[in-house]
Every structure is written in structure tokens, then in C-alpha cells.
């Protein structure tokens, strides 16, 4: 690969993280599950990609998210959140709030609509991003930060590109059975080796991988126990209250996720706006993600007591929630203002851009979905 080189401080931080991971591998007898490697690479205190200090979003970061593309994304989500809060409570939780742009756009839009928000809670693991959020949201006194789920909650939950960054298990079929991918150190470099899948992982494989028994030897893919646990935690949080979560991410329903042809899984890394498949490149300085199995997420939520309120692609969701109407509030004759907004909306809804790859899953408790969401629903595809 030909990728930009980091500066000396960033390289030193990555090398420190590599030593930490190597030490744990040695302590565990020579290998750790890939899920643990991914957890350390992303979340090790002070050194992981999300817990360290490197810029992650925007022109100077590694990738750009929908809230950074257009304020109309946040304005549209504000409408969806308002409909949920009208049936539950005047509160919002956002997981992984990035630069704070989405929170700012949502709160500003709700204020314009006259919708009261008593609390806007951000659950953020990155110290660098939390600092950026605090600066961006200093004019909104209802914003607060937590490190984990509250015990109970009434209101709307927003999670944009959160599930894809949760550690996954890599599994590969060998000799007719599924084995776990482990990470070891060979000649001073991280490398994959096969290991045994314990009973819990075997159960996860049977419950998640569609037609697991018919897939051929050599087939490598991911399963998502951490993300499934996140869905169960949402259910616990809503157990004694009303509310709904809007989860937006790239991924597929199960029957599309585990195509025969997708033999190498969906794991992808992002570094300085370059996408590549090597999770061992500069740990701590790159994002590591996997596409979301939305069928598995919906089943985990449902099994934990939540209702599946809707599933659709991002284009259908944004259009159902009125992004087209919001765009037309700018006069098309005013080309200087209208054309950049129109181009941004096109990126969000076009099937060739984010409109089809990104999906939206809505789950909740005690909430009736908006009729426009019901019309757009494609949960029969899950």
C-alpha cells in the first residue's frame, strides 16, 4: 500500500499501542481473538483510535460522515426525533457524536420548531472528539456527557455510524467447521492464525450467519456479538419507559450479508481518506470497521423486548422525514445557496452514493411510527 506517513508523534503513539497489544498477546499465551485486537486498536485508553488524540473527521481526518456533508441531515433527523419525543419524553441521547455537528443541527432545528429538549446526552469515548463537541455545543446548556448507558430513559436515541465501529469476531470455515481468527505476533509483526470457536461463538455463528452450513471452506466473515449486546442494552434502558432509537449505518440484511461471493467479509480500514483492508496498518491511527448485519441487530432488539418500528435505506428514510421539503426552503433560483445544498442532498440520497449502502433501523418501546415511516418500511427484507 502507498499511504501517507504519519508525523513522528503519531508514529510513536502507534508504536506504543503495538507494544501494548503485543504484551497482551504474550500474556494470553501467544494469541488473542481478533475482536480483542480491534477493541484495543480502537479503544485502548489514550492510545486507541477513538480514545486517543488524533483528528478523525473532516478534511484533516480519515473519513467524512453525513452530518458533515449537510446541515439538512441533522434537520431531518430532528423531525424524526420530535415525533418520537412527542410520544415519550423531551430527551435525546446521541451515541458517538463526532464533531458535535449533528447535535448542533438537531438542537437548532428543534428550537426553530418550538420543540422543547430538556436533556441532550452524548455518550462519547473519544477525549479528542468530546473536547470538540464541548466547544461546538457551548451555547446549548441542555447538553451533557456520559460514559455509558443511563439506567432508564424516555425519548429519542440517535446513533449514526456507531454499530460499524464495534469490535467483531472474524470467523473462517475450514474443514467443514467454523474457526475463530486469532491475532499473533510473527517476526515482529501482527498476523492471523486460526483458533477454536468456543460454545458461545458457535451459537452466535449459528444464530447470525444465514445458511452457515452450506457456505464453502475458506469463507471468511464477521459476526457481531458486541453490537448485538448494544441492542440488548438499548432494550434494558427503555424497559421502564417509552422511546425509540434511530440507528444509521452501512450494511445489509442477513441474506445479503452472507452471499456466497462475499468470501472475504466486509472488514475495512480508513486512514487519511484512504480505504484499505489491512487492520494491522498503524494501529491506533486508522479506523477499523465492518458492515452491519441489520437482521442480527433487529433480532437482538426484538428478542430483548423492543419493537422493530422500521427498516429502510437512508434515501427512503430521509425523504420520508422531509429532506426534500427542507431543501426547497432555499429558493432554487438562488443558485449560490441552492446548488451546494442540492449537491449535498444528492450525495445523501443517491443510490450511487450513500442512499442505498446506508440503512436505517428504528427500534423502540411504546412508540407508534410516523405514517411516512410505515410507508417506507422494508423490514420484510430483514
Could you characterize the architecture of this molecule?
With 382 residues, this protein is an alpha/beta fold. 37% of the residues lie in helices and 23% in strands. The protein has 14 helices and 16 strands. It has helices at 8-27, 34-43, 66-69, 71-85, 101-113, 127-136, 199-208, 225-238, 254-257, 294-303, 314-320, 323-327, 335-349, 371-376, and strands at residues 32-33, 91-95, 119-123, 143-146, 155-160, 169-174, 177-186, 189-196, 220-223, 243-252, 268-271, 274-276, 287-289, 292-293, 307-313, 358-365. The radius of gyration is 21 Å and the shape is globular. The model has no long low-confidence stretch (mean pLDDT 94).
Key structural traits:
382 residues; alpha/beta; eight-stranded mixed sheet; five-stranded antiparallel sheet; 14 helices; 16 strands; 23% strand
Amino acid at each position: 500500500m502507498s499511504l501517507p506517513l504519519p508525523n513522528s508523534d503519531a508514529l510513536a503513539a502507534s508504536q506504543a499501542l503495538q507494544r501494548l497489544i503485543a504484551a497482551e498477546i504474550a500474556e494470553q499465551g501467544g494469541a488473542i481473538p481478533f475482536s480483542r485486537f480491534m477493541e484495543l486498536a480502537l479503544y485502548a485508553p489514550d492510545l486507541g483510535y477513538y480514545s486517543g488524540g488524533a483528528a478523525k473527521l473532516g478534511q484533516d481526518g480519515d473519513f467524512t460522515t453525513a452530518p458533515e456533508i449537510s446541515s439538512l441531515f441533522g434537520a431531518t433527523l430532528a423531525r424524526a426525533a420530535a415525533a418520537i419525543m412527542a410520544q415519550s419524553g423531551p430527551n435525546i441521547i446521541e451515541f458517538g457524536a463526532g464533531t458535535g455537528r449533528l447535535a448542533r443541527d438537531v438542537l437548532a432545528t428543534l428550537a426553530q420548531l418550538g420543540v422543547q429538549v430538556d436533556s441532550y446526552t452524548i455518550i462519547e469515548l473519544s477525549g479528542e472528539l468530546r473536547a470538540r463537541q464541548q466547544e461546538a455545543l457551548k451555547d446549548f446548556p441542555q447538553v451533557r456527557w456520559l460514559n455509558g448507558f443511563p439506567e432508564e430513559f424516555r425519548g429519542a436515541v440517535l446513533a449514526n455510524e456507531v454499530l460499524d465501529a464495534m469490535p467483531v469476531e472474524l470467523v473462517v470455515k475450514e474443514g467443514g467447521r467454523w474457526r475463530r481468527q486469532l491475532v499473533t505476533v510473527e517476526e515482529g509483526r501482527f498476523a492471523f492464525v486460526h483458533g477454536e470457536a468456543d460454545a458461545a461463538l458457535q451459537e452466535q455463528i449459528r444464530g447470525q450467519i444465514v445458511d452457515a452450513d452450506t457456505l464453502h471452506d475458506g469463507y471468511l466473515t464477521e459476526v457481531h456479538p458486541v453490537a448485538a449486546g448494544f441492542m440488548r442494552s438499548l432494550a434494558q434502558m427503555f424497559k421502564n419507559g417509552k422511546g425509540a432509537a434511530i440507528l444509521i449505518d452501512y450494511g445489509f440484511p442477513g441474506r445479503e450479508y452472507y452471499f456466497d461471493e462475499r468470501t472475504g467479509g466486509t472488514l475495512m480500514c480508513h486512514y487519511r481518506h484512504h480505504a484499505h483492508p489491512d487492520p494491522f496498518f498503524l494501529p491506533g491511527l486508522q479506523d477499523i470497521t465492518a458492515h452491519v448485519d441489520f437482521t442480527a441487530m433487529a433480532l437482538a432488539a426484538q428478542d430483548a423486548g423492543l419493537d422493530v418500528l422500521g427498516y429502510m435505506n437512508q434515501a427512503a428514510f430521509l425523504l420520508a422525514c422531509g429532506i426534500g421539503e427542507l431543501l426547497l426552503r432555499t429558493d432554487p433560483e438562488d443558485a449560490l445557496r441552492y446548488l451546494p445544498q442540492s449537491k449535498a442532498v444528492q450525495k445523501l440520497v443517491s443510490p450511487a452514493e450513500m442512499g442505498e449502502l446506508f440503512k436505517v433501523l428504528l427500534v423502540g418501546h411504546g412508540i407508534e411510527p410516523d405514517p411516512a415511516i410505515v410507508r417506507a418500511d422494508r423490514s420484510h427484507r430483514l
